[in-house]
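Input:
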Amino acid sequence: MEINQIAVSNVTVKYFNYEAVIQASFEVKPKDFIAIIGANGSGKTTLIKALLGLKSISEGTIFKSKDLNIGYLPQHTASDDRHFPATVEEIIGMGRLSKKRFPKRMNTDDYLEISKVLEYLDIVQLRKKRIGTLSGGQQQRVLLARALVCEPDILIMDEPTSALDQSMRDQFFRLLKTLNDELGVSIILVTHDIATAGEFVNRVIYMDQRIVFDGSFEHFCEKKNLSPFIHTHDIQLTKEERETDGVD
Amino acid sequence: MEWIELLFSAFRYTFMVRALIVGIAIALSSSFIGSFLVLKKFSMIGHGLSHVAFAAVAIGLVTNTAPLIIAMPIVVLVAIFILKLNENAQLHGDAAIGLTATFAMALGTTLASVGGGFKVDLYSYLFGSILTIQQIDVWLSIVFSIIISLVVMLYYHDLFAMTYDESFAIVSKIKTKRLNTILAILTGITIVIGIRAIGTILISSFIVFPTVIAMQFSKGFKVTILIAATSSIVTVILGLMVSYVFDFPSGSTIVLLNGLLFIVVYVFNRILRPAH
Ligand SMILES: Nc1ncnc2c1ncn2[C@@H]1O[C@H](COP(=O)(O)OP(=O)(O)OP(=O)(O)O)[C@@H](O)[C@H]1O
Ligand SMILES: [Mg+2]
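Output:
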């Protein structure tokens, strides 16, 4: 029997009186690759924030296995300030802090890990660049590098691909798939792009305040009546369109 | 090189040496603190707190207590108060600061009109005067600048993470609430120590200018902080010399030099490196 990395049970999260997430329950096992989908305002970000401890919950429990190392990838660079004076190396280094004790210092080990992750993501040449001078896709890679450099057991991401073009998206998802397959990193990601994500994930969680569906993508596609928001028929179509576009 | 001698002749006097020590200490602390505040887009807290310091000094003068002794706890408490207002998202940072600053200013001027006799004293706190710097100010500024430098060095990585991305810092198990409170307290202390020499009106420029100047160089975080501290110290030393020679008010001279330096660095940057 595999031990859950995360177990969410009957979690309700409120903003004042409004229940953004109602009675959510699900487990994350090692090597899970989960896409959380749902309409705007359905509570996806709120659920992620609760998981990360960024938002307190009003009911239920969230269990995280001891010493679970979480890599977190936010939607954008948190500071949208193009002039923020920080180099790629400094930002990735931030990912090493969770393992350190006071007084925190960077040592050769840390720089080695940074080098490794830069190579892995093919952004070695960006190391000394200032973050604000990079393109959206490059910044996304830097944030992924920051999430990976702590050698996480699980990656949690909120719409990580929203700034990427279609080819970058495919590439990004393939990269996640490799991490998932080869390093055994489990992954939770919020996405509006289930058409792309669908072929990579092993589970889909569909939210509408409550968790309405939790199962495989294939199973999800069969449930045509699930919601007016997601037409699985359209998903298939857009996927085919994309492929023919690619040939042209 | 007579003019160099003339500039350095400033420091033949005890009050100028005191001003120099206090100035360098304030330059160091305020540029360190300022780097984090400016980049968190929270630098206006310095502006707000300096107004609160003005009111606190007025209270000190009315009640016949040493103004800085009474200003220190008041300003530090208000710093924490502004931070909490902001954290609980009941009020945006700029609005919270706007409220506090104007309220404090109104309180200060009202007290001044009631107190009558101490208007001149209060005025000296508006623009500061290096002639009023006492031995105790020298010690206070040295001690606190050492404390502030130590905190910045020991918590450097946590402060950096929190400044760039607070959510990520929280996920990385960094105690951001505590760190923010420490930052607010240190800001309050820096402001109070600075008002005797620089004055309540100008002290917040010590928080903002060095970092903004350093950012023009478009470097990494650590280098930017070091440039900020250096430029802050250099402008203080130069400013004191120039103000002595030309008999200008020292606080304003230092701030003007900072403005000038900013323009030079900004223009230099646009011409030399038009790419970014
Ligand atoms: N800080 C907040 N204060 C009050 N209500 C909020 C706050 N953040 C979110 N909400 C509400 O909670 C609900 C869920 O928001 P959430 O951000 O979790 O949605 P989401 O599923 O991530 O949507 P999107 O796809 O647009 O990102 C929304 O109705 C929103 O209005
Ligand atoms: Mg969202």
